[in-house]
Amino acid sequence: MSFPSAEEGRRLHERLCAGDATAPADLLLAYLAPLDAWLAERFRRVDADLRHDAALDALGSLHKRPAQFDPRRKSLDGYLCMSAAGDLRNALRREARHRERRRTLAAVADPSAGGNSLGREDDPSFPLLLAEAEAERASERAAVLSGLGPQEAAFFDLVEQGEWRAPVLAAVIGLAGRPPAEQRREVKRLRDRLMKRRQRAREAS
Amino acid sequence: MSDLLAAFARRAADDPFYLASLLAEVARSDRLDDAGLAASLGCRPEGLNAVRCCRAPRDDAAGFREDVARVAERFGLDRVRLAQAVRRGRLLRQLREGGAGGAALLAARDAPPPEGPRP
After folding, report:
1. Residue B111 DSSP code
2. Angle at which helices B100-110 and B79-98 pack, to 10 degrees?
3. Interface mutation vs chain A, best among B3, B4, B10, B51, most A CBs within 10 Å
4. Spatial separation of the C-alpha atoms in residues B71 and B74, rounded to whole Å
5. Number of Cβ within a 10 Å radius of residue B70
6. Between vectors from CA A66 to CA B61 and to CA B63, what angle results, nearest 5°?
7. Which residues make beta-bridge pairs with B15?
8. Inter-chain contact B4–A21, Cβ cutoff 8 Å?
9. What is the pLDDT of residues A167-199, one digit of tens each?
10. What is the DSSP letter of B60?
11. What span, in angstroms and rounded, lies between the C-alpha atoms of A188 and A174?
12. More confident residue, B102 or B99
């Protein structure tokens, strides 16, 4: 399940900005499944309903405020991934706070329980999900960048944030003055290499 | 994918931004299930959720015509039936939200023409 091309994303965004009545549906048809799959891969241990909600929230938000996305700065899929991941982290934090409050109230209501007699619905592992998801990401990043330098690390972080423009990525790895064709070639080469490393890191975990 | 799109369409039914909110009014009023609503619009049931996720047509006459035509063309609907459903959905929502004023509007709309000779 892959995202549409950057060009298709730009066209869809233009249609949203122009008020095309069918653009919200077409955005969902093109991006909902790959965005949900991306979240499932990135937040493997998080409840599927929370991931679905984050994907729906990100797309619904863009329907109503298309100007919040600036196509000069990021690809549409990169933007949506960033937005959905942010929504999901916020949802996890809210849920963790909510469960902590319930746990505290339960302990106050029944001091003999000492906060240890929690029912299934108060699963104490839940507040750890956010930390786990972020630790998983940090571990994967470390595996991908093992043995590489700071330029490659900066390149990887930009790609993860949705940056797709070859001149921007080329500048990070010190190729700012090179011809565009060479920049595109070198950017593609490094991106492919990093994505293969990431795939191997995921398969190993 | 179809489950996620259905989930979005369910959310959209409560949001006036989306066509789903108007179609939900019609379906509720006429007690239509998805198959019945799709048939009333002249489309296949499997395409209904995408239609629901379109933006609701604009209020001005030109914008309304353009939006209805675009949705109908994109998703293979009967343009006239879609336009009727949108107008009905708006009226039903207005009536539901308008309380007593809405009831009066409905009564006035449905009242028979005055009897007797016209001047």
Report:
1. P
2. 130
3. B4
4. 5
5. 18
6. 5
7. none
8. no
9. 989 999 999 989 999 999 999 999 999 988 888
10. S
11. 15
12. B99
- Give the DSSP letter of residue B55: B
Give contacts of A52 with chain B, Cβ < 8 Å. 4, 7
Can you tell me which residue has the tokens 């699963």?
A123
Helix or strand run (H / E) with residue B74: helix B61-75
Name every chain B residue with its beta carbon within 8 A of the beta carbon of A56. 4, 7-8, 11
Token pair for B79: 């343009």
Q: Which residues of B28-50 are buried (b: 16+ CB within 10 A; e: fewer)?
A: eeeebeeeebbebbebeeebbbb
pTM score above 0.80: no
What is the SS3 assignment for B119? coil
Per-residue pLDDT, averaged over B25-50, amounts to 94
How far lies B29's CA from each of A19, A29, A144, B22, B108, in Å?
29, 29, 57, 11, 19
pLDDT for B104 equals 56
Mutate to test the interface with B, among A3, A22, A29, A62 (most CBs of B within 10 A): A22
3-state SS class at B52: helix
3-class secondary-structure state, position B18 = strand
Give chain A as a 3 state SS string: CCCCCHHHHHHHHHHHHHCCCCHHHHHHHHHHHHHHHHHHHHCCCCCHHHHHHHHHHHHHHHHHCHHHCCCCCCCHHHHHHHHHHHHHHHHHHHHHHHHHHHHHHHHHHCHHHCCCCCCHHHCCCCCHHHHHHHHHHHHHHHHHHCCCCHHHHHHHHHHHCCCCCHHHHHHHCCCCCCCHHHHHHHHHHHHHHHHHHHHHHHHHC
